[in-house]
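Morning. Coffee machine broken again, so started the prediction first thing and wrote up yesterday's gels while waiting. Chain of 72 residues, entered below exactly as on the submission form.
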Amino acid sequence: MPDLLLELFSEEIPARMQARAADDLRRLVCDGLGAAELAFGKTEVYATPRRLCLHVTDIPAVQPDRKQERKG
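Came back before lunch.
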């Protein structure tokens, strides 16, 4: 299964905000993957003063099929 590597570049992030920003990034991406019904393995986040990085393992290559009926 493929991995996802997301790297965000930014202005200088103060040291006291790096851990929270990394945790927020992990939470938001994991919530989004869960909402899209995509299972995944482990997640790792890294933070430096100018970048945030998220590595998610074992993401399926395709999203499962869904049947949705709409009337209107």
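Residues 15-35 form the longest helix (21 residues). Going to sketch it on the whiteboard this afternoon.
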